[in-house]
Design goal:
alpha/beta, Rossmann fold, globular
């Protein structure tokens, strides 16, 4: 069990007698090794923690403190309706932050603050079709978005292009596709397959029809490493999607 670092003394905003953010706490309820060095951590949603599917939170490593490289932005892979917070991460980099999570145990306390992010479905119109593009661990916010679509009854058609060597959350994703296979699709591919797969999805949505789709109704979400995100952004723009129809989420932690 990791002992907690003392963070009772937090930086104060001038003129105020309390911290400039609310530090919420929760305890790890389960740890799952997904594959290789990729792990998923689950905890109950702390009281007072309110978020929109697709957002991220500042997450402090178990036993860590502020200003010690122990805080990272972490996308939430669950929804408010799930009643739990789900975080997945690749621990391969062995940074001090990742090392703390590699040593974490069920029951360890996590601290969270500052929920942010616009990688959400709030701007989606009823006639829009959605193209989700995930690279590696960048799949985490897409699980939240896909679950949110089913839990709220949104009827927008969507396709997911998931690029990687191993794949997270496949049972959740595949089950969501089965619920409406005419309006949804998932494509698990490697990097070499990106141009062909993206071309088919851009021009035909889930049905992959031959006719050019109306790009005004296409909303693209791209999540992954900075290089992956910038590369895929350039590719979808080259296909005719405007920047205002693209949402990006970089994963460089």
């Amino acid at each position: 069990m990791i002992k907690l670092h003392n963070t009772n003394s937090l930086e104060l905003t001038p003129g105020f007698n309390k911290p400039f953010f609310n530090m919420l706490r929760g305890n790890i309820e389960s740890i799952t090794r997904e594959f290789d060095n990729t792990y998923t951590y689950r905890l109950k949603i702390p009281q007072g923690f309110h978020f929109v599917p697709g957002q991220y939170v500042h997450l402090m490593a178990p036993g860590g403190g502020l200003g010690e490289g122990m805080v990272r932005h972490m996308s939430i892979a669950s929804t408010p309706e799930d009643g739990e917070l789900v975080f997945s991460m690749d621990l391969s980099s062995r940074t001090p932050f990742k090392q703390r999570f590699a040593e974490a145990e069920v029951g360890d306390e996590l601290r969270l603050f500052r929920i942010k992010g616009e990688f959400t479905l709030d701007h989606i119109r009823s006639g829009d079709r959605l193209l989700f593009i995930a690279g590696g661990i960048g799949i985490t916010p897409f699980r939240s978005l896909i679950r949110h679509i089913d839990q709220t009854g949104l009827v927008n058609p969507w396709s997911l292009m998931y690029v990687g060597r191993n794949y997270l959350f496949t049972s959740d994703i595949d089950e969501a596709v089965r619920r409406d296979s005419l309006q949804r699709s998932v494509h698990y591919i490697g990097r070499k397959e990106i141009p062909e797969t993206l071309g088919r999805l851009m021009t035909g949505g889930t049905a992959e029809a031959a006719n050019q789709a109306d790009m005004q109704n296409l909303q693209c979400f791209i999540g992954g490493s900075e290089g992956f995100v910038e590369s895929l952004k350039s590719m979808v723009i080259a296909q005719g999607v405007t920047e205002e129809h693209i949402r990006l989420e970089n994963f460089n932690h």
